[in-house]
Every structure is written in C-alpha cells, then in structure tokens.
Amino acid sequence: MTPLLELDDVEKHFPVRDALGRSRGAVRAVDGVSLSVPEGGVLAIVGESGCGKSTLGRVALRLIEPDRGAIRFQGEDLRRLSGAALRARRRDMQIIFQDPFASLDPRMTVEDAVAEPLILHGTVPRARIRDRVAEMLVRVGLRPELARRWPHEFSGGQRQRIAIARALASGPKLVIGDEPVSALDVSVQAQVVNLLQDLIRDLGLTFILISHDLGVVRHIADRVAVMYLGRIVEEGPAPEVFANPRHPYTRALLAAVPGQGTAAPPLEGDVPSPISPPPGCRFHTRCPHAAARCSAEVPLLLGAGHRAACHFADTLPPAAPLREADPGGERLRRLQAFFRPPPAQTGAMP
Amino acid sequence: MTVPALTIENLSVEFATDRGSLRAVDGVSLSVAPGRTLAVVGESGSGKSVSALAVMGLLPGSARVGGHIALDGEDLLALPPEALRARRGGAMAMIFQEPMTSLNPAFTAGEQVAEALRVHRGLAPAAAFAEAVAMLERVRIPDAARRARQYPHQLSGGMRQRVMIAIALACRPRLLLADEPTTALDVTVQAQILALLGQLKRETGTAVVLITHDLGVVADHAEDVAVMYAGRVVERASAATLFARPEHPYTVGLLGAAPRLTGGEGRLASIEGTVPDMRNPPPGCRFAPRCPFAITRCVAEPPPLAEVAPGHMTACWRAPLAQVLGAA
Ligand SMILES: Nc1ncnc2c1ncn2[C@@H]1O[C@H](COP(=O)(O)OP(=O)(O)O)[C@@H](O)[C@H]1O
Ligand SMILES: Nc1ncnc2c1ncn2[C@@H]1O[C@H](COP(=O)(O)OP(=O)(O)O)[C@@H](O)[C@H]1O
Ligand code: SF4
Ligand code: SF4
Ligand SMILES: [Mg+2]
Ligand SMILES: [Mg+2]
Fold first, then answer.
1. Do B257 and A189 count as a contact with CB atoms less than 8 A apart?
2. Which residue intervals define the domain ABC transporter in the entry (chain A) (predicted)?
3. What spacing in Å lies between the alpha carbon of A55 and ligand 1's midpoint?
C-alpha cells in the first residue's frame, strides 16, 4: 500500500550570516531525512529543541521549500505542484501550532477563524458554513454559542480547541501537531490529549505529533522517530522503541525523564552546533559507547520495522529498564477513575 | 526535629490592579529544614513565584504582604530595606527559569560571580575572580577559566543556569529558592542541572525550595512537597507519602494527568474546566468547581489545611479519601 506521506532524503539548510552580511555557513536543520508515514494512526517525532522537528514538519507540508529531496503525498510529488493544484492538496494537510495565543488572529471571531479554511477550500456551500462551524465546535468540546466571541475571551486550553476545530474543519487527511499541548498546564494538557485521541480515532486521521514530551508521545503515538541534529537516529513502533531503545541517544532521552527514567547517569555536555555537526556519527561527542569508527563513519538508519542509526545497535548491552513504579497502587487507581470521563462521542465526519 | 531554615506562616499577598484587587497568595504556611528540598508544585498562576518573591522581598510596590516569614528565626517582613538587601544574595538566594533575564549581558560570567563575592563576602577583586573561577568549576562548567571570560550570550542555556547557580551559592546561602530552574531546558540538560543542585545541597546543607509544575521532578529531587492550587496550599507531605497516598483530590487528578513512559493507562485522568479567576475565586473550596467529590459544604466553606496522618496535611472536607471509596 502506498504510504500517505513519504519523505525521501529531504534536506533543509538555513544560511547563517554575520553582522556584516558575510556567509558563515548554514544551520543544517534537516539533513537527509527519509520517512514513510502510513495512512491512519499517529507518528511522533521527538528530540530536543533545535534538532529540526519543526523544520521537518513545515517541509513535509511544503510550508517551506526543502533544498533537496522528494515529498510524496499519496504518491504525488508535492514539489511539482503549484498554484491551484497545490492549494487543492493543502485542503488535505493541516497543522496545529504550540502557542494557542499566537495561532489565532485576535481580530477574528471564533466563527470566522473556523470558517476561513472552509471558505478557502470551498468545503461546504456558503449557506452551510455556519452549521458546519457549530458542528466543529461541539466536536472539540466547546459550546456553539461561543462562536461569536473573540480569542482573548478564552483560556489557553480553549484556544487550542479552537485551533483544532479550525485545522479539522476542511476535513484533512493529514494533520501535523507541532507541540500542540506543550504550552498547556498538565490538567488541561490531559483534556486536549484525550480530545486529540478521540478525534484521530473517529475521523480516521493520520497525525504527525511533534513533541519533546516523551510521556505524551508514548501515550498517543503508534510509531516514533527520534531526531538528533537534523537526522533521524531511531524509528519504530512506539511500544518497541520505549521498551527496547536501540540507539544510545534514545536511551539517554528516556533515562533523563524526571520521575520515570532509567537509572542511567545523565548525558554529559550540550548538543553541538548544527552549523558544524560532528563528523561521522553526530552523537559521538556525547555517546557513552563511542569508538574510533564512530567519528569517522556515518551510521546508516538500518533495520526492519525498528531502525537505528548506530554502528553498534546490534551489539550494545540491553537498555536499562524504565521504572515501573506504582506507589499509589489500587487505591489511587480507584480514586483517579473519578477523573476519567467516558470518551466524548465526536462522531464520524459527515 | 531540626529547626527549619525558612518558616512561612499564613502568608498572603494582594495586588492592586486596574480591575480590582487580586489575592494571589492566601494563607500559605510552609517550612524547610537545612539540607532538605521542599518542592512547591502547582499549575501556572497558583501563586508559587509570588510566594518565593515575597520571601526575597522582591515583590513590586503594588503588593500588600501579610503573615510571617522567618529565615533562621529572623522576621524578614520586619527588616528595613537595606538589611533585607544584605540578606538577598547573602543568607538567601534565588534562581529563575530564564537565566538570561537575571544575568547582565554586559559582564562576563566570571565578573558576575566575582561581583557577588565582593559584595557579600568582601573579597578583593583579584581574589574574587579567582574564587569565581573555582565556583564555576564547582558547578561543573567545563574549561571554567575560559568560560569565566565569556559573556552570557556565548554560553548555552544549561551553562547560563550553572552560572546562576554559582552566583546564588557564592555566598553560601542558608536558603536557595529555585523557581522552575530547568523548565526552559532540554530534558538531558535538565537532568544534569537537577543532579548538580542536589549534590550542592548535600555538600552545603542549604535548604532548597524547588518550584516546579512537574511531579516527576518532585519524585526525583525533593524530600517534602507542598501542592498549591489557586493561591493556597492544598496538601503537604513527604514526597514518598504524596505519591503513595495522596489525600487531596487535586493531587489525585494531577498524578493521573501525566502520561507514563510505560504506557497502558487508556484515557488520561483529566481535571475538567480551568483554574478560577483569582479576582473572583469561588467562596468555598477553590477546587470545588472541578472536583468530582464536591459536596454542598465544599461550595460554601473553605476547608482548612489539617492533618490526616502524622506529617501529612490536606485541605479537603472529604479527607481521608477512603470515605469516597466507601471503605472504612
Ligand atoms: N527560519 C530559520 N532561519 C534560520 N535558522 C532556522 C530557521 N528555522 C529554524 N532554524 C534553525 O534550525 C534548527 C532546527 O530548528 P527547528 O526545526 O525549529 O527545531 P525543533 O523544532 O526541533 O526545536 C535550529 O538550529 C534553528 O535555530
Ligand atoms: N505584579 C503582579 N501584579 C498583579 N498580579 C500579579 C503580579 N504577579 C503575579 N500576579 C498574579 O498572581 C497570581 C499568581 O502568580 P504566580 O505566583 O506568578 O503563579 P505561578 O508562579 O504559580 O505560576 C497570578 O494570577 C498572577 O497573574
Ligand atoms: S555510532 Fe557510535 S557514537 Fe554513534 S550512537 Fe552508535 S556507538 Fe554511539
Ligand atoms: S473540599 Fe470538597 S471540593 Fe474541595 S477538594 Fe475536598 S471534596 Fe473536593
Ligand atoms: Mg519546534
Ligand atoms: Mg511562576
């Protein structure tokens, strides 16, 4: 089966200039990424800030032009499309951003914000637009009476619901969420995570979740790709990658999660500059397993189903297990059941 | 029982704003012993930073502060401004989420640590700079002698936070207030900084107040916890007790809202609704509009923070929560 989205050796570098306008090389934000996104379900892209997640997401939707590589959506090369054909495709691909305060135009009512993509793409006849907006608001858990209000009248969590309604209004096949819950407080984050899960399931969406929060990723992703300095270092089914990480960087990320990580000591040092990444394996300056070969030879992303870009992926000692702590036990689970409302009936898309 | 380094009793902070007055902190009581870390956890707007700023005497003039704050038995709210200034950076120090806003961009890292040493420990300039380099080494800045001559913008976020820690610890404070010190950092760097703070605390016996919204950080890095909600402390316990036997419904909800790396929780527990508007908070229990266990009394009367077990306090009319489970 053709994947919904396919990236083939995609590269995006940002030129860097000094104060006098002289070239100082380039930030290698995305540096040779190949990825195949099957239809349906959630693929997460994880990694620390600056590793190229957002750039990759924007390139995938061709919101920014890659320098090199192919982007195929349902087998069609997006880079060959322009004008009306590209616009028609855009209807199938939407993005939700992190900052719910920046992502809505303060001069547009909720109704106008959600209606805009419907008008742009001619999704429904004009006479039906108002009904459709009301329906979308209900679907994301907001009362339709709120349609005439302004963004500043809403909390961060409600704004993110509005942004989700806007992204889903035109009935896209693929949605990218770029840190969609990262700016929300944990109790509100849980509401929005639950909502996203319901919508992804009910609407049969393909969702790319960009996130640095490994707990959220484990919770909703089917597959996960780990990035470091512009490259994917590991990719595979989420339960597999979390239980049995093959790449030393993935292991270090998991070890560092407060309260849940493994007992491995924290990684030393900072991420090197993406302008001049280390030669060979980009992780070798911080890797506890680095050997001579690592600084000389670039490791390829190898494996079937669960891939890792490490020369020693097959011979590393087993990863330290995650902490299975359950201090609250049965009592806490019974109390928490009161905080678990039944899934919202978001219904199928008409 | 050791004598606490910091004792806060019935602290209240009220701001006069254009749209009426706002009581950001309402009757908060806390204490921290030397060599221990108290985590103050709660969502944004719950009054964590305002409480810490009240201790430091750094609130703006529009703030009205009530209650008692004692550092080693000395009443901080009664001190004249110059004396309080001497305590800041001397007996007590604070580090913030964004070190860039507290560092001076025009001075090198070493100069800024040395300045603290000159002011508070009376060292001569050359001795202060040498000691500053030693301090930067102590907070594990690699190549400290070279880094000491660099400006903040030449350092990574993690290194800037290390410089802030060096400045804060330069004068061997009895109390360190750390307000979300790793929230802006990546997870691997966060782990380094929190490990460093813990180690320095063990070496110096400083009392630490660690403000965070991350219960995972609490689990790994604090001995005691206070959970805040809408300007009040709703639960206080040792960290071990809080995770094993939380007694406040808000804590129960928070613990279930954070997904786990091992997966398998089905739907996340979620606390419906949002935090109250602090200009017009609910009259009774502030959590009542979001609490699945609320009863009539909760809406009318604020529950006091009371002991449910030795050393374990909760502000809930329905505590112990065994009641709501129907067990005896
Ligand atoms: N428009 C841009 N111009 C220059 N550099 C950029 C631009 N966008 C991103 N970068 C750089 O590219 C790298 C990757 O950035 P980004 O994709 O935003 O990472 P992430 O989302 O993983 O934090 C970073 O070093 C960032 O500073
Ligand atoms: N200088 C100020 N003037 C008016 N209100 C303030 C001021 N500082 C903080 N507040 C308010 O006090 C409340 C508590 O804030 P804060 O202590 O910063 O919360 P937290 O640190 O828990 O996120 C918030 O409602 C905030 O808007
Ligand atoms: S290739 Fe070498 S340096 Fe890179 S992750 Fe594997 S062991 Fe570490
Ligand atoms: S006092 Fe009532 S509303 Fe408040 S937390 Fe307890 S049960 Fe819930
Ligand atoms: Mg990003
Ligand atoms: Mg704060």
1. yes
2. 5-254
3. 6
